[in-house]
Amino acid sequence: AYSASIGGLATLIGTPPNTIFRAVVQKTYGIEISFAGWMAFGVPLSIIFLAIAWYYLVKVAFPMKIKQLPGGKKVISNEKEALGVMSPEEKIVMTIFSLTAIAWISRSFVLVQINENINDTIIAMISAIILFLIPSVSRKGDFILDWETAKGLPWGILLLFGAGLAIATGFQESGLAEWIGTQLTILEGISFILILAIVVILVIFLTEITSNTATATMMFPIMASLAQAISVHPYSLMIGAGVAASCAFMLPVATPPNAVVFGSGYLRIPDMAKAGFLLNVVAIFLVTLAIYFYLPMIWDIDLTSFPEQFQTE
After folding, report:
1. Contacts 24+ apart (CB under 8 A), 115-122
2. Which residues of the chain have pLDDT under 70?
């Protein structure tokens, strides 16, 4: 569960808050965050966090009392045999998915040279259409993807995605963003890294009792208003809130991976809370430091000033 959440930080599609962040930025400021650009920030953060989490879980939280699991190789061998060889359909899906991922990563510096109108949405739609058009090898008359299968996808996330854009627009059009900005001017003069840390702490522990997607959707417009009020770059607080929303490790409700693992019945809430609390603390320090020191270098931005082109009415 923890590796799924941490690994999701690496890409824009790895976890819903990342995708919603990109959409809100594009809607609010007219700036597109590229897949490769996000990975330049997210991949190193994810790798470092995964290493720390592995060491903590294996050496500190649940230290291994044996060096080798009796019969472990046999269990793995049996599971591999149960999977069987890859079917032609599985190979086709793997190929298309790999090509899609490569296209997403290379779009901003390769595909735009061919056609500047190509975006990540077009790439995803083309890949999906191809799956609908390729016939199945083993099931005559069927295709790799049909609508009955597609209906099983989590389409509900699109409602939350749209809600994020609607909330962001509502904040601007209603004047709520301006009002919040006025109220938050009292934070001017406080150390920026302290404000960033407070945002990360707030979102992490708020996410423990709410959905991470819902939390991020609610927080992005507020963070954009706060950034403008205290004259800092909005990416700093928005990314802080978005990444923090995926770094809640204590309770099942916090993230989908937590809920799935808890639903297996092998873990109790006290087990997750005990292991997750210290990982939350690690996340607070790691996310805050990564945004404060690494993000400005890799994206060539000044976190301590609000860009003029981002000014809103």
Report:
1. 119/32, 120/12, 120/35
2. 157, 160-161, 164, 181, 312-313
Whole-angstrom distance, CA of residue 313 vs CA of residue 303:
21
pLDDT for the residue numbered 160: 66
- Cβ-contact 18, 6 below 8 angstroms: no
Query: What value, to the nearest 5°, has the Cα angle with vertex 226 and ends 221 and 227?
Result: 100
Residue with the two structure tokens 């990564």: 290
CA-CA distance, 167 to 145, in Å (whole number)? 34
C-beta neighbour count of 191 within 10 angstroms = 8
pTM score, whole prediction: 0.82
Other CB atoms within 10 A of residue 218 CB: 18
Model pLDDT, residue 312: 59
Under 8 Å CB-to-CB from 123, ≥6 apart: which residues? 100, 103, 104, 107, 111
Pairwise CA distance, residues 89 & 130, whole Å = 13
Mean predicted lDDT score pLDDT of the chain: 87
For residue 225, the model assigns a pLDDT of: 85
Q: How far is residue 200's CA from residue 284's CA, in Å, rounded to a whole number? A: 6
